[in-house]
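Action item from last meeting closed. Structure (361 res):
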């Protein structure tokens, strides 16, 4: 089974008083399995897949994900709590699925430097397990959340997909090795796979409070709280910061693009513009109205200096064009963190409360 026809049947009163079935919706729906759905990007993907009228099955062990990220869509998704690796859940989760969006990972460079084995298991072993299950279930296509960290500290800018990778951190090595497995499963078994190398994704629901969080989520929430943010290094390091809606768009395109154009291939997903951290801080000062200054701390091991995506391949073969640029993305993100902080039920505490409400309760 690749696609199923779902019939929604309503009952209408007949003129004779009896109930007769009436079809009010008949369409082809696709079923997506989203791994890491309780995370920042996975939850954004789930909302968009539901919005386009398709079905979401999902798997997450809440190692870094949060229940509140999926609380408003929880009743609409087939959610399975558990680990991708070694739980046996993954084979069942792949059954009857058309597309897999594989987001689950321990998505952190510094955390992988501290604990390379945990990074290896979550970021590589779990990917291989998933690929075997997807192959056996005859899933149509697997789209993988790869990472620009694969390029490492090569000085060439922008980074293009044909460059020789040069990963620095254990995280980057595991993400790159997962890409190779994706391509290998296409070549050896014909399982269609597409790797999207994300360049620093940011936006609503990114966790700001872990010591391993992405820089923008941290800066924004600290500055909104009136706390002083820290830049590791001199602040001249630059990134192609990419608003999350662009990554969502790329995933959905990657599912539908012709196999001859995309299967077994790797695509950069960014905006194609880079901004340094000093400039980012000044922009946030303006958007937030923050009067304080930033403090500087020594550089961190494994961090790359500059990053910028070359997007020609994604534009040509996926039909991808970034829709939301950096400053607009920052404004939307600040707006979201502000709205959460000022909610009467004070869901803003979710960012500092590890025992946030369980949606099952
Ligand atoms: N955020 C970025 O800038 C960025 C950049 C490049 C690549 N990526 C990749 O995108 C993906 C999503 O990143 P994110 O920022 O949303 O991270 P996130 O930490 O918010 O989400 C990851 C999710 O995966 C879940 N998870 C982790 N290991 C699991 C396992 N073994 N079994 C089941 N669930 C598991 C976590 O609980 C979490 O919900 C990751 O694969 C990451 O490597 C992210």
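Sequence:
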């Amino acid at each position: 089974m690749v696609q199923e026809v779902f019939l929604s049947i309503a009952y209408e009163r007949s003129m004779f008083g009896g109930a007769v079935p009436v079809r009010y919706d008949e369409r082809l729906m696709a079923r997506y399995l989203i791994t890491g759905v309780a995370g920042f990007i996975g939850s954004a993907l789930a909302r968009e897949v539901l919005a386009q009228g398709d079905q979401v099955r999902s798997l997450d062990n809440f190692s870094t994900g949060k229940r509140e990220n999926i609380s408003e869509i929880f009743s609409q998704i087939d959610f399975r709590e558990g680990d991708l690796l070694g739980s046996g859940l993954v084979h069942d989760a792949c059954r009857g699925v058309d597309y897999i969006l594989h987001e689950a990972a321990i998505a952190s460079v510094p955390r992988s430097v501290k604990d390379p084995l945990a990074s290896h298991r979550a970021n590589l072993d779990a990917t291989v397990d998933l690929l075997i299950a997807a192959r056996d279930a005859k899933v149509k296509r697997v789209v993988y959340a790869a990472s620009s960290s694969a390029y490492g500290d090569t000085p060439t800018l922008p980074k293009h997909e044909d460059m020789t990778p040069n990963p620095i951190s254990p995280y980057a090595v595991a993400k790159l090795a997962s890409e190779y497995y994706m391509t290998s499963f296409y070549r050896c078994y014909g399982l269609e796979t597409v790797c999207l190398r994300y360049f620093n994704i940011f936006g609503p629901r990114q966790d700001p409070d872990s010591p391993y969080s992405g820089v923008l989520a941290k800066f924004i929430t600290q500055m909104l709280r009136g706390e002083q943010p820290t830049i590791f290094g001199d602040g001249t390091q630059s990134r192609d910061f990419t608003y999350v809606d662009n990554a969502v768009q790329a995933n959905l395109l990657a599912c539908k693009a012709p196999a001859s154009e995309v299967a077994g291939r790797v695509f950069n997903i960014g905006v194609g513009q880079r901004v340094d951290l000093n400039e980012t801080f000044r922009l946030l000062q303006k958007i937030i109205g923050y009067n304080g200054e930033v403090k500087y701390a020594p550089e961190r091991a494994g961090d790359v200096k500059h990053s910028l995506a070359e997007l020609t391949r994604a534009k040509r073969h996926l039909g991808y064009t970034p829709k939301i640029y950096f400053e607009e993305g920052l404004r939307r993100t600040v707006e979201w963190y502000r709205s959460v902080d000022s909610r009467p039920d004070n869901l803003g505490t979710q960012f500092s409360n590890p025992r946030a409400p369980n949606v099952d309760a």
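Note appended to the action item: Residues 116-136 form the longest helix (21 residues).
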